[in-house]
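Why do we care about 3D structure at all? Because function follows from shape, and shape follows, mostly, from sequence. That is the central idea of this module. The next example makes it concrete: a single protein chain, its amino acid sequence, and then its structure expressed as tokens.
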Amino acid sequence: MKMGWLFHARAVHFKSPYIPFLLSWPDNDDAIKYLKKALNIGDANPNQMVYLAQAMYKDGQKSQAIEMLKEVANMNPQ
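And the structure:
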């Protein structure tokens, strides 16, 4: 899968704690950027969409995040 590395890059940026002077690289903006790229490269899957919605919600994009979660909730299981 082409999007695999982008999804894992997102995980690092979104889930890693920010520790000043020790870890300065975790970045929610990068998490959003990489997740959007991953969704555009391959087929969007619910897991990616949930992580993107979480990052967007954390970024203050609450209405967009909620809409994305509604879309995930309405997906048919495969």
